[in-house]
Amino acid sequence: MTGEFVVKGVGGHRRLIINCRGCNYGCDVAQFPKCMSDVVNALKTTDADEVVLSEYYERIYDKNQTKVLKEIANLASQFESDALWTPSHLGKKVSSSIISKRHNEIRSILDIIPSDPFNAYLTLLRIMRTYIEKAKTLSPEALEDLKIYLETLNYMKTEFEKTELIKKMRMYLAKMNILPKDRTIYHSLFHVAIKPSFIGSRIFFESGENLELVDEYEVMGSKTYIYKHPEKIEYLYFINPPEYSLPPEKYFILEKTKEVVANYRPKTATFMSPSEARRYFHRVYMATISDIARHNNISLSVKDKEELARIVARYTIGYGIMEILLSDRKLTDIYIDSPVGIKPIYLVHSKYGQCQTNIIFSPEEVQSLVSRFRAFSGRPFDEAHPVLDFDLPDLQTRICVIGKPLASDGTAFTFRLHKVTPWTLSQFLDHKMFTPLAAGMFSFFVDAQASMLIVGSRGAGKTSFLQAMMLEIPQNLRIIVQEDTQELPVPAMKEIGFNIQRMKTRPPLGKQSESEVSAEDALRTALRLGDSVLIVGEVRSTEARALYEAMRVGAVGNVVMGTIHGESAYSIWDRVVNDLGVPTTSFKATDFAIVAAPIRFKGSLKRSRRVIEVTEVKKEWNEDPLREGGFNTWMTFDANKDNLELFEDALKESPWIKKIERIRALKFDDIWSEINTRGASKQYLVDLKNKYNIPEILEAVNSVRAQTQFMLLKEKYSSGKKIDFNGLLKEWKKWADEVLLKEILQKRKALASTKQV
Question: Of 95, 156, 531, 711, which one has the greatest count of Cβ atoms within 10 A?
Fold first, then answer.
């Protein structure tokens, strides 16, 4: 150990960082006496909450372990200050040879306290036992003199036994009933956290004795574990990235490689897509790693080099450890609260809800991320502009960063992960968000070109539900999507075959760029882009007036859908009219308000998404829809039954149904049969998924194929005076069994064969 150390403030903690590069012995407090001695001696003169031994990787001793070491440092300083080796503490009338012997005994104990405090304590006990036995044979005068020395030894024993280390060591010995010959006993106390020196984040693991493992899977080569703690409400989301458990020689290669390539940026990099850049840099890093390993006589397999290249890429051109979390598409949100470095990262898992991670972010990594995000977005982020809100396309993530003075404790992050593939109505059916009848109803609304607002609070599933509704749009129609934050999976829909155009508008937060178009101007532009389905990601502000104006005069002429924050049909009328300034007469252009909400059944901590209301907006009222009967509620949710219940009379009295009967030459029974048939087809996919354990049949690519086949068969069965919906459903199910299901099972079989090979 070089002896150099600094104390840094990290997340409100004081961290003692000792430089261990070039030391001639191991970098481990538990294993190496000299290492423990250097740490304890450093703690004599500094106050620290954590200790970090820094080499090519860092060993981090947390607050509790540092407190144990600090107690030993204070004990050694206390004994030195007391000068316990001086004659007044050793005796009075005995010979100088006896005083000298006692002096050497005390010094031998004091000398080994920093490097081996438990051995110092045991040495003290042996010396005391020896003198206590000897006292039995001494004269009264000699015994009186010995009492002075025994008082000194007993004082030392009492002070030793006040320390946490000695308390725990005594408990350990009581359990094991054996005294280890080496330093094994220290390993029971010092469970060090290890991380590469170029990584700021810390990973910690709680004792697994009380944890119940409920799930595990792999993300980017990193093991991910979900635990349930008996005394915590939230689940624990622990990751174990490969870069935190490498042998020293690989840490050496990682550090050297990063030093070489850290600042390299080819001139052509700005023209590369993220995936192309990754492949390019991967080749560069592989060659560098191979060369460093060869020159240092370190043997690496091709697999080893691949893994090390991926790690270097993650911490140079990637997003560090955050990249692992952002690549876990089972997550929906990630939170890093300020001040950074104190609390672990929290996240929301699609299956387990809010979870505490075992990752503590560092201020250095925060600054690195902020710099990268500022460069990507082209927007400022400083005290004059404390909000940075933008989309990260390569990881399908919306990011919001806040800083001082808005966040008084420093920079904080929120990451919203978008589902890469769109949600489908059948997937929501599988999650019991609504009933098969409701699914058929929603599909019919889209086919009948209704104007709809998806209503709900944050986390209710509004945007996901809107995605599913978009998949019901026939692929022969053009779709215009307007968003200020890109949450809808437009690229995925294009791959499936949709004719869709995205329009990115000025975000609601942060510094406004002159090049960005307002939502209202973008909407007016969209109305000039020809006959198209219009999707508004979220109705927030002045664009609401333009939207309703277009709907009112029939300028859209197709399906119009959007999301809006609210809790009921009445609440959105109140917001749209009173807050956003849309005239009541224009609001009546809305055909339906579909309300979703997170439900806590029986007050449970778990939240389940449900559609709780389907309400038609009538047209024959003037000022207040609630007072004048302007709402016609079709369905409401009963939490006691966990069921979305239908009011059949509402359908029979529906002005919208009567309009559809008139403009499509349909009877009520035809409309009702079509709604039920559409719902049955959605449920049949869920049944196939459960029967054959094939979740992929509910994914967008297969759901759209199924919906397209349904519409083609409907066209076929519409040739007569009355549509034979029974025959249509029967033939559609046959296609689902013999074509769709068969293809999926064959793909599974082929994939399994490939893996075996």
Answer: 156
